[in-house]
Structure formats: structure tokens, C-alpha cells
Specification:
The chain has 329 residues and is mainly alpha-helical. The protein has one domain: Orthogonal Bundle (Farnesyl Diphosphate Synthase). 67% of the residues lie in helices and 0% in strands.
Length: 329
């Protein structure tokens, strides 16, 4: 396998971390075991090594403890869901994925409907019930973003099934959803108790800030997860899409993606500079959103250097399941 060097990634935002990282980490394992998300010893060890709580704490640096535990529950849910499809055979079987996703979305539509729930279903129900002060409008927006996230996974599954490396533009468009960032940014309203008027939230400037922050986080992830995804034979990675489109070496593709990340960071900074003036209450809330957007970009980068999640790849024989993967769907 061709070796690559990760270049210096431009991200001029300060590293910040919530002081509750350790406390959130300590309480999360017990809850995950209670919900059935962690059952095997290999899964427990992998979870503890990943340092997920430190990612959450880096991305939501000013969030209070109770709200941070709720945010962390969602972060873990996304990682656990992702592993089912990236590391399991079902990730290349879209026909099996669709009914599972429909059942999960039904939990948001009718949480009290009585039906057997998988571990991921039970965890989603718990998260949804505990959403602090969620309005009907917030729930509708989050549910739509989760549906978009599921749709993006079906697109990736079809690529895997066909062994198809997607075109760069198509991949970038889908990656806006497949990273789960729209749902994570939705959490800011409740975790940090802020809101923006619809005309500000849907403005072109704020939309660009959300999109560029999402691109930076997801493209950085593609650089760090490249080794793991190549080992699994995955085709859904921006580096692979760039390499395929431009017929270049893998290292050249990594360097090209790094240049793309730099341009997105610069676009975020320039868009932030061009924000119009707002009344003081809106301005204060906008500052909190921007704090989290910047923290996500910097925090994801810092955590990617810390965690062994992408650096340590478990070798398996063809058709053999990785030792830590559990049936959570």
C-alpha cells in the first residue's frame, strides 16, 4: 500500500477544550453498555482508546456539563452508526439499509410507538427524549437533516456495491450530509441556548459559514481516515476521488485536498469578516455559533492527531469481520 505523508493543515483557530471532557468520558461508558451499544471487550477497548469525549469537548468548548453529555451522546451515536456501515458488510447493501433507516426515522416521528428497538434505536430514542427545550421547529429541522444523512449513506453504499469512485463535485455535495455536521450544528441551539431569526439563519452568509466549516471538518477527516478506508476497499473518500479524476499519485491527491482545505478555511474567514451588523442580542448568539464552527474545525484536526481510530487499522482476511464490530442495527 502506497504510504503517504499528511502535510501541515492550515487551521488558524485557537485550540480550546471544555473542562468537562474527563467527566463526560467517565460517565459515557456505563450508559453505552446499558443501552447495548458496547457489549464485547474489544469494542470497549476501542471506545476507550478513541477519546471521543475529547472531540466533543473540543468542538463545544463553552457548553455546560448536562448539555455537553447530551451532545456527546449524539456524537457517539454517529460514530457507532458509521462503524456499522464503514466496517460491516451492510455498508455495501443499500437494499438492507433502507428499512433500517426508515425504522430509525420513525422514532423521531412517533417516539412512543411500541416496537422492538435495536441498540442504536434505543440510543436514538433516549437522545430524542432528552433534547433540552426542543421546539417543534427544531425537531423538524433535525429530523430532516438526519434523513439527509441517511440518504447520503445510501449513495455511498451504492458506490461501494459497484466499486465506483465518485466524481469530485458529486462527492463534495454528498459529503455535506454524510459527515453528519448539519445535525451536529443543530445541537448548538439547545446545547448553548442560542437561536437566530430564520432570515439570519437562512442568509447566504450564514449558509456559507455552515458549508465551509462542514467541508473543512469532513475533508480533514478524509485525509486522516484514508489509510483505514483504503484497507477496507472503500471508494468514498475525497482523496481517492481527486486521485481518480486527475490521474495523480496518492500523495499528490492528498496535497491537492490539503490545498482545498486551505481555501475553504480562507473562505470561512472572509465570509465571517463580511457579516453585516446585527442587533446586540442576535450578534451575541451569532458569536456563539461562530465559536462552535471554529472549534469544530480546530478541534476535529487536533483530535485526529490524538485518536488511534484512523491510524490503527485491524487487518482481516477477505470476508472476515473486524473483532470490535457488534450488531447494533
Amino acid at each position: 500500500m502506497e504510504r503517504i505523508t499528511i502535510p501541515t493543515i492550515y487551521c488558524p483557530f485557537p485550540s480550546v477544550i471544555n473542562p468537562y471532557a474527563e467527566a463526560v468520558h467517565e460517565q459515557s461508558l456505563t450508559k453505552l453498555q446499558r443501552l447495548g451499544l458496547i457489549q464485547k471487550e474489544t469494542a470497549r477497548r476501542r471506545f476507550l482508546a478513541a477519546r471521543f469525549a475529547w472531540l466533543t469537548a473540543r468542538c463545544y468548548p463553552a457548553t455546560a456539563f448536562e448539555e455537553l453529555t447530551w451532545v456527546h451522546d449524539w456524537s457517539i451515536w454517529l460514530f457507532m452508526f458509521d462503524d456499522q456501515f464503514d466496517d460491516g458488510a451492510i455498508g455495501g447493501q443499500p437494499e438492507r439499509m433502507q428499512p433500517i433507516m426508515a425504522k430509525l426515522l420513525a422514532i423521531l416521528e412517533d417516539p412512543d410507538a411500541s416496537s422492538p428497538r435495536s441498540p442504536l434505536g434505543a440510543a436514538l430514542y433516549d437522545f430524542w427524549q432528552r433534547a433540552p427545550g426542543a421546539t417543534s421547529a427544531w425537531r423538524a429541522r433535525f429530523a430532516q437533516h438526519l434523513a439527509d444523512y441517511f440518504t447520503s449513506y445510501l449513495w455511498e453504499a451504492r458506490n461501494r456495491a459497484r466499486g465506483h469512485i465518485p466524481a469530485v463535485d458529486a462527492y463534495i455535495a454528498n459529503r455535506q450530509q454524510s459527515g453528519g455536521l448539519p445535525t451536529c450544528f443543530d445541537l448548538i441551539d439547545l446545547s448553548d441556548h442560542v437561536t437566530l431569526p430564520p432570515e439570519v439563519y437562512e442568509s447566504q452568509e450564514f449558509r456559507t459559514l455552515r458549508q465551509t466549516a462542514t467541508n473543512v471538518v469532513c475533508w480533514v477527516n478524509d485525509v486522516f481516515s484514508l489509510r483505514k478506508e483504503r484497507a477496507r476497499g472503500d471508494v468514498n473518500n475525497l482523496v481517492l476521488a481527486v486521485q481518480h479524476a486527475h490521474h495523480m499519485s496518492l500523495q499528490a491527491a492528498v496535497n491537492t485536498v490539503n490545498d482545498m482545505i486551505t481555501k475553504e478555511v480562507q473562505r470561512f474567514i472572509e465570509t465571517e469578516r463580511q457579516l453585516p451588523g446585527y442587533p446586540s442580542a442576535i450578534e451575541q448568539n451569532m458569536r456563539r455559533y461562530l465559536l462552535v464552527f471554529r472549534a469544530w474545525m480546530r478541534g476535529n484536526l487536533d483530535w485526529s492527531y490524538e485518536t488511534p481510530r484512523y491510524a490503527q487499522v485491524e487487518e482481516t482476511a477477505p470476508g472476515e469481520k473486524v473483532s470490535y464490530l457488534e450488531s447494533l442495527l
